[in-house]
Amino acid sequence: MPRVIKPPEIRSAELLDCAQRLFFERGYDNTTVNDIIREAGLSKGAFYYYFASKEALLEALATRLARDSFTELQPVLNDPSLDGLGRLNALFAGSRRLNVELAPHMRRTFFVLFRPENLALFHRVDQAARELAMPIITDLLRKGRDEGIFDVPDPEAFAEMFLQLRLIFRDVMHRALLKAEQGNIDEAARLLDDRLRLYGIAIDRLLKLPDGTIEAAQPGFARAFLEAGP
Amino acid sequence: MPRVIKPPEIRSAELLDCAQRLFFERGYDNTTVNDIIREAGLSKGAFYYYFASKEALLEALATRLARDSFTELQPVLNDPSLDGLGRLNALFAGSRRLNVELAPHMRRTFFVLFRPENLALFHRVDQAARELAMPIITDLLRKGRDEGIFDVPDPEAFAEMFLQLRLIFRDVMHRALLKAEQGNIDEAARLLDDRLRLYGIAIDRLLKLPDGTIEAAQPGFARAFLEAGP
């Protein structure tokens, strides 16, 4: 059988697909470069042509995972009809919509990323997401401040705090998914909805908006996210 | 030479001391159980008598590091003359005092804990600190709410958010320490002071207090912390 020649970007995407599948199945720490090349049907030389190390592959994978979700939310950020508050609420609404649309995949991803043996993977994905999100959120806060809607002493520092604060959902989501897995869907949905509501209030207060202005929560969201099949 | 018999709590404390020294020098991931027993002059059997695994030792070490700082701050929390706001400000003042008093040790600890190869160690210390701090902060917020000083919709959820938000200092402190190491003390002190001030404002706003009520920052603190010898 002649060797199939593929363009490098296809090959590296395939390697990332294989690695993602293995990391999700066994955990990052339990997957070796040998496992990945075996799964991808490539030589070690070919692997190292694309990635200097397993770490470098992890970094590329994290960036890809982070970029995928941002690409979906981009239209909202460029919508000229929205002011700062409209953009921020549209961002939360878009993120909820994506989470429900892709619920089974997202639940599995969260479940895997929050496993202790995947701490390094989670950390990288979070880093990559932060790097992508920082200029976007900073810009959003600056524009909202210039429009007189947000009271923000320092858009960049506040963007950092917002991105930090969202990480409470690492633990909250993990607890909710565990409850859901044990059949306590009501309790799981209540926890997730409640924390989203309180997170929205925290954002309101940080921007000096009245409680309930930012719509991080939405009735029925948590249940839809936790129950959407398969 | 007769074998020295020591009580188990002394032995396990010595093992923790050895492990801490090695983790700080080489990183957690680069230290093996063999390294630790060689340094401590103990057998493998003795090690496993005290700790089921390197992970279990890490957990014990994290709890000890976290508990040490809380013990120092305990008097403030039990001071009956303080109201919620007084307690919170005293907690920040106490934490600054400790950081300056132990500055060389704290700087080295932070520098080591924030190294990428010590992610697991950092994570465990943070977890242990959270577990200790959660009931304390929740109680502080609940009392302050009952006194009519803080506006807190949910003391437990807000305590979680506060503990999450403080982690912006992982990155801020790392950047400040790097700048200081490169000789840019002015810039390092400005960054740290500024972020402490903004963090204080964030806490004010989350509790619906006027900006500047919570004294997380204090003029001269960052410089004192960064410069205190040796």
UniProtKB/TrEMBL annotation, chains A, B:
Q: Which residues bind DNA?
A: 32-51
- Which Pfam family name is an example for this entry? TetR_N
**GO MF annotation list:** DNA-binding transcription factor activity; transcription cis-regulatory region binding
Q: Which UniProt keywords apply?
A: DNA-binding, Transcription, Transcription regulation
Residue ranges annotated for the HTH tetR-type domain, each copy included: 9-69
UniProt superkingdom: Bacteria
Identify the InterPro entries for this entry: DNA-bd_HTH_TetR-type_CS, Homeodomain-like_sf, HTH-type_TetR-like_transc_reg, HTH_TetR, Tet_transcr_reg_TetR-rel_C_sf
Protein name, as recorded: Transcriptional regulator, TetR family
Its taxonomic placement starts with: Bacteria, Pseudomonadati, Pseudomonadota, Alphaproteobacteria, Hyphomicrobiales
